[in-house]
């Protein structure tokens, strides 16, 4: 209790908390985009529940991993070498997660381009509830481990990490439904978001092989692409307003 009161009175701790919350929110964007796209493939009456379960699993995983910080830190220790490059458990998890993200994003792009897969009888959602939760859990694990390792490098105080994780996940929970509705209502945004997931997958693989990619570059590219798409949406809306109705 004394240590917690000391942290509350320490301005440095508040600065670390603010930094960690921002970092957790930024890292959570990747996870939220994936959850939104995946759950939009489910029947409408299951989508909200799947999003809440997926985000709840992310919170449980991150809090659980915070309880094993000492073990998490050891995941960065080399296990074997490939062509002179030391590979750790964290590297293998990032590479596997990146490959999974590439596979899933590519599959979703194919579904968006050809929803029926060349067969007219295949209509409606092609994803089961359990399968969606399982895939969300896989990406939750990858992003959670990366998030916790990054947090450990920024502060040594576990209570600060816990508050930052809970705050970020609560913000994800608030943003999940509006983001999913926005993505579902704008097909071009779906393709853009899938492109983001491919870029994130490639980044995870590169990080796993030791090629550090500054996150600022990734999110700047995402923000620029989203800004361009926003201008396109505004232009389309204005063109529709100019087109006279058939009754006129």
Automatic annotation (TrEMBL):
A Gene Ontology cellular-component term: membrane
Superkingdom classification of source: Bacteria
Compartment(s) where it occurs, according to its Swiss-Prot or TrEMBL record: Membrane
Membrane topology of the entry: Multi-pass membrane protein
Keyword Protein transport: no
Keywords assigned by UniProt, alphabetized: Membrane, Transmembrane, Transmembrane helix
Primary location group: membrane
Chain ranges passing through the membrane: 12-34, 55-75, 87-106, 127-152, 158-176, 188-210, 216-235
Family annotation (PANTHER family): MEMBRANE BOUND PREDICTED REDOX MODULATOR, SLL1022 PROTEIN
Family as reported in the entry's similarity comment: Belongs to the TerC family.
Name of this chain's protein: Membrane protein
Species this protein is from: Methylobacterium gnaphalii
